[in-house]
Design a protein that fits this description.
Length: about 80
């Protein structure tokens, strides 16, 4: 695993724990998702040129059937 992959995995783990904390505190899962999605889209819009941003949005849309649900550990947190 290269340094970028390690950094991304650490960031994913940190955000997963932060998200889980809010879900345990009974923050709406839809509110958590909305904040994460809005933040991600704003970062893409800020850092990508318009053409690349459009490609990213198309990629996200085209990938919607490939998105997996979280596993049992998060399901227990949500219920």
């Amino acid at each position: 695993m290269n340094q970028d992959e390690k950094q991304m995995l650490k960031l994913y783990d940190d955000l997963y724990l932060y998200m889980g904390k809010h879900l345990i505190e009974k923050t709406s899962p839809l509110a958590v998702a909305a904040v994460l999605m809005t933040t991600a889209l704003r970062l893409y819009k800020t850092t990508l040129n318009p053409e690349d941003f459009e490609q990213m949005m198309n990629f996200v849309s085209d990938s919607r059937d490939k998105i997996q649900k979280f596993g049992d550990e998060l399901d227990r947190t949500l219920n």
